[in-house]
Write a structure and sequence with these properties.
With 229 residues, the chain is mostly beta strands. It is 8% helix and 43% strand. The chain has 2 helices and 12 strands, in the order αββββββββββββα. A hairpin with a 3-residue loop joins β2 and β3.
Length: 229
Amino acid sequence: MKIFPKSLHYSVLVLLFTFLGTSHTFSQKQKAFIGMLEYKVSARDTSMQKFLPSYSMLIYTNDTIARKENATQQLGTQIEILNMSMNKAYLLLTTAAGKFAIKTDLNKAKVDTTKSSYTFKKKFFRRKIVGIRAKRMLVSHASFEQPIEFLYLKKRANKYNKVFGEIPGLIVKYSIVTADGILDYELIKISEYTPNRDLFGIPSDYKKVSFDEFLDIVTAPENERVIEQ
């Protein structure tokens, strides 16, 4: 097996376009957030949990740039940096072929404008999460056995964790259908402070490339490797 099979290419694409969700603006006034958000990510199917253990997703932001960190067994640590003012995103990956910052200009990227496969229904009343009252939505998808409750903070913008543009606020509990099954995301910690500015830069030892350039590099004959288990 090569170290960059097609399944990995797909996983990288999923990560790379995390920030390419449907873009929406909302009329209500929303407060800026500066600090850190920590989500617990876990497989909804209990039979998958031993193959896909739960992990943390961290989001740091200064309200201009957001840095998202994931660490999975399949891809190791992945870092996404979104410059919200310039509308550009980078996916930082460390591979056998080197360190890369895969760049995307979101102004030029092709975003899927077809109707979402998720449907949303607002619900009355609120539910607390990390001690904060959140608004509720019931969300349906063909892969959900039944609608799943999503939670969001109406007074906070959803731009820091840019998934589900249909949600008019910072999404703090949600589920995503992936090739590995349904993954549940739940906010477990929120901290307001000024993160170190170094978190939002691209390290000098990472090479900035487009996704096509990245694929050309890692699939070159000299970069083909056999995975050692």
